[in-house]
Amino acid sequence: MSGIVLPCIVLPCITDHLVLRTIDGAADLLIEEVRAMASIHSIRQASVDTVECTIDGPLDDLAACGLYATVAVRDLDQSLRTGALSNLPHPVRFRVGTADPAQRREVINATEQRFGWVNRPGDWDVNLVPFADGWIAEIGPLSWTRRFGLLERLPWSTNLIVAEVLIRLAKIRPGQRVVDPFCGTGTILQAVRRQHPTTHLLGLDHDPHALRIAANNALSIATSSPLTTAGNALTIAADDALRVAADGALTIAGDALTIAGKALTIAGGDALRIAGNALAAGDALKITGGDAPGGSKIPLARGTAEALPLGSGSVDRVIANLPFGKQVGSHRANRTLYPAVLGEIDRVLSVDGRAVLLTEDKRLLHSAIERQRALKVVRQRVLRYNGATPTAYVLSRTRLARTTPAR
Ligand SMILES: C[S@@+](CC[C@H](N)C(=O)[O-])C[C@H]1O[C@@H](n2cnc3c(N)ncnc32)[C@H](O)[C@@H]1O
After folding, report:
1. Ligand 1 nearest atom to the CA of residue 305, by list position
2. Is Methyltransferase given among the entry's keywords (predicted)?
3. Residue 357 contacts residue 320 (beta carbons within 8 Å)
4. Residue 200 C-alpha to ligand 1 middle, in angstroms?
5. CATH code assigned to 150-220+298-403
6. 360 lines ligand 1 (CB under 6 A)
7. Which of 23, 73, 338, 385 sits most deeply, having the most CB atoms within 10 A of its CB?
8. Start and end residues for every CATH 3.30.2130.30 domain found in the chain
9. Which three-class secondary structure state does DSSP give residue 76?
10. Is omega for the bond preceding 155 within 30 degrees of 0, making it cis?
């Protein structure tokens, strides 16, 4: 698997039984990915949006997988001995995720008495939540945002797991040119960059406010090393112990990094962004690339998807969360938008290019594709999350369009 946030940091080895929470429509993809991980065993889909498994070994591969939102443990005693809970700073700070105040108080009291943990609803490492047959403990440092960074969002920003699903459906190959013509706050582009750091990206949107957020988000990819959250959490003992291979892979937000020797080598430009006085180590840091500090950029441009500023046949993958016509746009506007966008995708896509388009305005997209004739649906996947049920359509060229030169 490519796109691991910090490929060289070795996370702890643990033995535990884990519950991974994803979205309805992504569990099979998650299972496929965890099956390939040497430390994961006994994998089973427990419900439409949960996968259970055991781990016996390092956490690195699991922590690098973007297809789940949270990891929880079922057996707290065992986890405290050998599992994910054993690596948290003590006393463990916890919250209780239930709306019922009486039940919450009861669980807080019982947990404080039994484990000696402290209730810190605003600054927690464990979230106790009801599950099928009792309570499970979500591990804060393994949540999606603690592993990959907190992105600024708008109400219509693409769900983080959905973005991961879309880029898997796109089957991106190294070095390909990937465009999101409705990029908004850049969620899909961020996911592509994490998974496929060698791709050439471009994001377009007609909303300058969304583009400003996308630009900020592109500068902030997190680097939190799960389960090492205490002071001096990351200590690099050997020279060159930490190499940052991908643009923007390392963001240090607190006093998290102490460098004693020539421990940090940054190979590419834009690899390191320091927010605050996080780094103080004399001349311990040498930057050999071009304009290394300042964050990693993704090319973004203001424009309309109906007139892409791109040459014919110049793009390998188009991936987009289209306006569904609810929060963004309208069904009426989509009647002209969708055919126009499909026309542009047909124009800019390479002969063996692929487009992945997400919408809830399904009939409209289907009929626009049928009328347009140059593109066909080769796969589709229904996703369910937060009351939405969009379908992701994978499009490739029809045979006729493959043999007709690009206009
Ligand atoms: C569903 S949102 C995409 C969300 C985005 N993937 C994100 O994570 O923020 C649709 C986006 O399309 C943009 N948009 C709507 N009509 C457009 C058009 N004709 N051309 C370009 N962008 C458009 C909106 O501004 C909005 O940001």
Report:
1. 20
2. yes
3. yes
4. 20
5. 3.40.50.150
6. no
7. 338
8. 13-147
9. helix
10. no
Pair of tokens at residue 266: 């940054």
In the chain, where does the domain assigned CATH 3.40.50.150 lie?
A: 150-220+298-403
188 CB near ligand 1 (under 6 Å) = yes
Helix axes 331-348, 362-372, angle to 10 degrees: 40
Using one digit for the tens of pLDDT, what is the confidence trace for 110-150? 999 999 999 999 999 999 999 988 999 999 999 999 999 99
Residue in 156, 217, 298 to alter for ligand 1 test, most ligand atoms within 8 A of Cβ: 156
142, amino acid identity: L
Give pLDDT, residue 295: 39
Q: Whose CA is nearest to atom 15 of ligand 1?
A: 323
**pLDDT for residue 132:** 83
Q: Ligand 1 center to residue 182 CA distance, Å? A: 4
Q: For the whole model, what pTM was predicted?
A: 0.81
Q: Are 379 and 394 in contact (CB under 8 A)?
A: yes
What gap in Å lies between CA 1 and CA 378, rounded to an integer? 24
- Report how far residue 229's alpha carbon sits from residue 125's, in angstroms, rounded to the nearest whole number: 9
Residue 296 near ligand 1, beta carbon < 6 Å: no
Largest CA distance in the chain: 73
- Residues 327-363 as b/e (b if ≥16 CB within 10 A, e otherwise) read ebbeeeebeebbbebbbbbbbbbbeebbbbbbbbbee
Helix 160-170 and helix 187-195, axial crossing angle in degrees, nearest 10: 60
